[in-house]
Amino acid sequence: MASQSSFTISEGDPSSTDVEKEVRTARSTSHIEKKQQQQGVGADTEAQPPYREEDEEYDISSEHDSSHHETESKHEGGGGECGVVSRVLSRAISRTSTKSIGPPPDGGLEAWTAVAAAHLIIMNTWGLINSFGVFQTYYATTLSPHTASDISWIGSIQVFLLFFIGTFTGRLTDAGYFRQVFAAGSMFQVLSIFTMSVASGSYWQLFLAQGVCMGLGNGCLFCPCLATLSTYFSKRRALAIGIAACGSATGGLIFPSMVRQLLPTIGFAWTMRAIGFIQLVTLVISNIFLKPRIQARRTGPLVEWSAFKELEYTFYACGSFFCFLGVYFAFYYLASFSRDIIGVSYVDSLNLLLVLNGVGSFGRLIPNHLADRFGPINVFVPVAGIAGVCVLCWMAVTNVAGLYVWAAFYGAAAGGIQSLFPAGLSSLTTDMKKMGVRMGMVFTINSFATLTGPPIAGAIITASGGRYVGAQAFAGAVLLVGMGFMMAAKVVKGRRIDKGGGWRVKV
């Protein structure tokens, strides 16, 4: 006796109508096959269901493909209506459960809204970090007898935590906890600013508020932000990241200007509260409009050790480590250098920071635009080299005019490093569901560079009796070492793509 089969499909399932049609088609095909076999017609051939264009609308992963073929092979020899229906249901379940979200939109309202939200995030994280020279100069007068190296630890621990917890926040983002991580980061960020307003004059209170609390907030915001933004773009990814990274220049212009104008009139406490209110509003906007696009990857390791078997990934991690070991030296010490060595006023020293951060906008946009055409790592190599040479040339600057010119050139090069770094890293990741964890792993490696770089430079300055030449040589040298590792990553990746392509390969 032929077995009967029944099945139910949820009314809310958008694919239920298609599945029912396919089942009816399969049943009729099965009856035709039986009749043909009874009549001796078509016994040597198996009737195939008609081709439908809808079949091309789904992207079935290899995992589901294998399970689908296994199910089909089990029922193929059994015949009967039950086998036909089972095959159809297996195919339908695989399709509906693994429906592709499609390729990155590379534009459109939702994608560019994500860029705008990411711009605000980076304004509130890296914008404040790049403004630390303002605090370094102010704390030198209010936190005496602490040395420049002691004070730089506040900024260093902040950047360290931003990168260090990237492994954890990146994996949580991949697992579908983007909203929770993002909200926690926003709360830490705002809390740290308002806590700073009541911690003036105490080194350890400022260390905990600005260094630790703000660093945790930065880490919960930055890595998930970039990992999510990268999934919206493919061909124009570097440009999108560059526009978002310009938030660093935006914050680097707004926050030092606020400090310069408000600090002499309303004091440190209310200056920080004013900054805090700006951060509160912009972070709320970012939480609303930045949305995850890729489906959650619930399973998977916290650290994907197999990534380091890819030589280009390992070289890139080493290169970015050395670049970040030296790139922030100027952001921390330019204002102090201008006052101690050149003899400019406090206000003029802040103007130099404004130039350094403002020109960085061009350094973030132009290299990233070129990166979409020639490849982010191809552009990263010369930009890192220019930055290293600029720092070495800093040793020859002896007047105010020369310092402004130098700040403009270095600001552009340093801005390129900051914006090309995530663009190049995302280009080494083909599986977008692993973007968070692979990006977070390199962030964690770089955290130790940002933790030790500025304090090492400060210790060299102190050991040299206040002279900056040794620290400048250190920062320039490590940037050039970073360029060398980036070049190695470029060569390995280029050979993997096209063994005969050489330097022309887009990487």
Automatic annotation (TrEMBL):
<dbReference type="GO" id="GO:0022857">
    <property type="term" value="F:transmembrane transporter activity"/>
</dbReference>
<keyword id="KW-0812">Transmembrane</keyword>
<feature type="compositionally biased region" description="Polar residues">
    <location>
        <begin position="1"/>
        <end position="17"/>
    </location>
</feature>
<feature type="transmembrane region" description="Helical">
    <location>
        <begin position="440"/>
        <end position="463"/>
    </location>
</feature>
<feature type="transmembrane region" description="Helical">
    <location>
        <begin position="403"/>
        <end position="428"/>
    </location>
</feature>
<feature type="transmembrane region" description="Helical">
    <location>
        <begin position="377"/>
        <end position="397"/>
    </location>
</feature>
<feature type="region of interest" description="Disordered">
    <location>
        <begin position="1"/>
        <end position="82"/>
    </location>
</feature>
<feature type="compositionally biased region" description="Basic and acidic residues">
    <location>
        <begin position="18"/>
        <end position="36"/>
    </location>
</feature>
<feature type="transmembrane region" description="Helical">
    <location>
        <begin position="181"/>
        <end position="200"/>
    </location>
</feature>
<feature type="transmembrane region" description="Helical">
    <location>
        <begin position="311"/>
        <end position="335"/>
    </location>
</feature>
<protein>
    <submittedName>
        <fullName>Major facilitator superfamily domain-containing protein</fullName>
    </submittedName>
</protein>
<keyword id="KW-0472">Membrane</keyword>
<dbReference type="GO" id="GO:0016020">
    <property type="term" value="C:membrane"/>
</dbReference>
<dbReference type="InterPro" id="IPR036259">
    <property type="entry name" value="MFS_trans_sf"/>
</dbReference>
<feature type="transmembrane region" description="Helical">
    <location>
        <begin position="151"/>
        <end position="169"/>
    </location>
</feature>
<dbReference type="InterPro" id="IPR050327">
    <property type="entry name" value="Proton-linked_MCT"/>
</dbReference>
<dbReference type="InterPro" id="IPR011701">
    <property type="entry name" value="MFS"/>
</dbReference>
<feature type="transmembrane region" description="Helical">
    <location>
        <begin position="270"/>
        <end position="290"/>
    </location>
</feature>
<feature type="transmembrane region" description="Helical">
    <location>
        <begin position="341"/>
        <end position="365"/>
    </location>
</feature>
<feature type="compositionally biased region" description="Basic and acidic residues">
    <location>
        <begin position="61"/>
        <end position="78"/>
    </location>
</feature>
<dbReference type="Pfam" id="PF07690">
    <property type="entry name" value="MFS_1"/>
</dbReference>
<keyword id="KW-1133">Transmembrane helix</keyword>
<comment type="similarity">
    <text>Belongs to the major facilitator superfamily. Monocarboxylate porter (TC 2.A.1.13) family.</text>
</comment>
<feature type="transmembrane region" description="Helical">
    <location>
        <begin position="469"/>
        <end position="489"/>
    </location>
</feature>
<feature type="transmembrane region" description="Helical">
    <location>
        <begin position="206"/>
        <end position="227"/>
    </location>
</feature>
<feature type="transmembrane region" description="Helical">
    <location>
        <begin position="239"/>
        <end position="258"/>
    </location>
</feature>
